[in-house]
Design brief:
Largest interface: A-B, 19 and 19 residues
Strand order of the largest sheet of chain A: 2-1-3-4-5-6
Helix content of chain A: 40-55%
Shape of chain A: globular
Largest sheet of chain A: 6 strands, parallel
CATH topology of the largest domain in chain A: Rossmann fold
Structural class of chain B: alpha+beta
CATH class of the largest domain in chain A: Alpha Beta
Shape of chain B: elongated
Distance between the termini of chain A: 35 Å
Number of helices of chain B: 13
Order of helices and strands of chain B: HHHHHHHHHHHEHEEHEE
Distance between the termini of chain B: 43 Å
Radius of gyration of chain B: 34 Å
Strand content of chain B: 5-15%
Number of helices of chain A: 11
CATH superfamily of the largest domain in chain A: Response regulator
Low-confidence stretches of chain A: none
Mean pLDDT of chain B: 85
Structural class of chain A: alpha/beta
Number of strands of chain B: 5
Largest sheet of chain B: 5 strands, mixed
CATH architecture of the largest domain in chain A: 3-Layer(aba) Sandwich
Strand content of chain A: 5-15%
Strand order of the largest sheet of chain B: 1-2-3-5-4
Order of helices and strands of chain A: EHEHEHEHEHEHHHHHH
Oligomer: heterodimer
Number of strands of chain A: 6
Radius of gyration of chain A: 17 Å
Chain lengths: 222, 415
Amino acid sequence: MPDGPLRAVIAEDQALLRVGLTRILEASGFVVIEAVDNAPSLSRALASPEVDIAVVDVRMPPSYSTEGLVAAVAARQARPGFPVLVLSQYVEPLYARELLASGEGAVGYLLKDRVADVDGFVAAVRQVAGGGTVLDPEVVAGLVSGAGREQPLERLTPREREVLTLMAEGRSNAAIAARMFVTEKAVGKHTNAIFTKLDLPPAPDDNRRVLAVLAWLDGGAR
Amino acid sequence: MTDWATMLLQPIQSLRPRPVDGDALVDRLRLTVLSLGYALAMAPALALAILSILCVPLSLVLVGLALAFAVVPATAALTAVHRRVSGSLLGEEIPSGYADTAGTNLVTRPLRWVTDKARWRDVGFLWFSATGGFAMSVLPVALLTAPVTHLVGALLDGGGWWWLLVLLDGPLLVAWWCATPGLVRGRALAERSILGHTRVERLERRVREVSASRAETLDHSAAEVRRIERDLHDGAQARIAAVGMNVGLAEKLIESDPAAAAELLREAREATVDALEDLRSVVRGIHPPALADRGLAGGIEALALPLPLPITVAVDLPGGIPQPVESAAYFAVAECLANTVKHAGATRAWVVGSYDDGVLHLEVGDDGVGGADAAGSGLSGVARRLEAFDGTLEVASPPGGPTIVTMEVPCRTGR
């Protein structure tokens, strides 16, 4: 991660939300280089090497389909590992899969509702900017319930399943521990148990771990 | 139409030889005159029949195409007269049922003609008119004119042969009396079966209409769903998300910068009001509350109330009109009134509605400038929606007004 404040580009066609996002990021110490309202402007803004992270709405003019997502994926092809956090008013696991497939990590996909939890949202932006993966609980819930048909998931205890879900959302052991009101050590034990039960290769790095879990869930969801 | 034409084109009175009276005589004389007309029509029919056949090979050298542009309309004009006459004699209408040639050009129109069964029936009719039909129609004329000719010949010439022929005329006149109504009716029936639709064609046509209107309805509902999704996404959903952001940020700033937090909260409150307004307008667009609560009459009254010109609403309907029809009719009236407000420059407007004989009638009129276009996107959209219920929409809007849109939708009430 670069030194100094993170430089962000915001792409959101709804003026109210564009202003809201800009305010929130600026109040949290980001520099908002540009806030654009359409896909062509977004592509142009993302060409600048100055940008550390892009926060992008899926649906934007001119055609109001998935221009934002397409522009984000294209930017990541031009600049592998470029951090993109995609916001949307609805979750579509298909879009999550496209994002995840566009390179390892440094992606996020959140419902716009999550922005209201300002601290959580800002943490997610930082996490993505730092190369992490953040998925909306709704997306993960969809993946987990889709994978639920598979036998191995039934071997997990309810507690382990909860940990799995939080891991898939992109949380670190420390964050999971805080969320579940247990010690980090206890979370470590759960994650080890999950990896063993699901036959996943051990992955020391948080992000690789998330990706492994997501790949497993995504495979199960198919 | 003149009186003698009305008289001439009455349905055939009776096929029986009795009673033998003045009325029956007048009817037979009338039918004989018509037969003469039928028989004389053989000349143009034969000419057109030959030209029609010539059109096909001559099309290879383009002359046929030019010829077709004269022959086909002329044939249509001739058959139109026959449809009219034979239909009147049978007391029914004989539909022409030509394929629609709207939107065709000089090249595609002949193609449309060639593929149109109704046009080929016309050609078939031409040959019938020149052959069997001619024989059927010339007979009553001959049976009546022969005795007259013989008598005149006998009186002028005085030869014995003439008087012998006059003796034979009794049976001829009897034959004329007995056969004429049957022959004329036979000809009319033959024309009906050649020129009119067969049952299969009627059904085929109906199926085409139904599939077209069904496809349009599906298109329409898909477009409606997209519109609703878009309205929600851009309206209420976005505003509520903005409220969340503002409140979240205000929560963060409340200690460090209370004034900014208060401003954010005020914005958030305003956004909730807007979001509710958005939701209400979406709901109104799906199923207007007044329509749900009060039915079509109440819905139309509610519709008229906020508009900026006086609107007389006289809608008297029984209960139990099917809800989809009510809804389609409501949005049709809404579109018409919106047009009135936008384009008519009217000082007043009216909506009249009634239900008789299983048909819902609605009339929306105004005293504005007129010139409304039924093919315009708004009204043609309404027409398409009504078509789904076999309904029709007609626009009378001469320049200078008034504009009157008449809609009819067949439907059964639930009672």
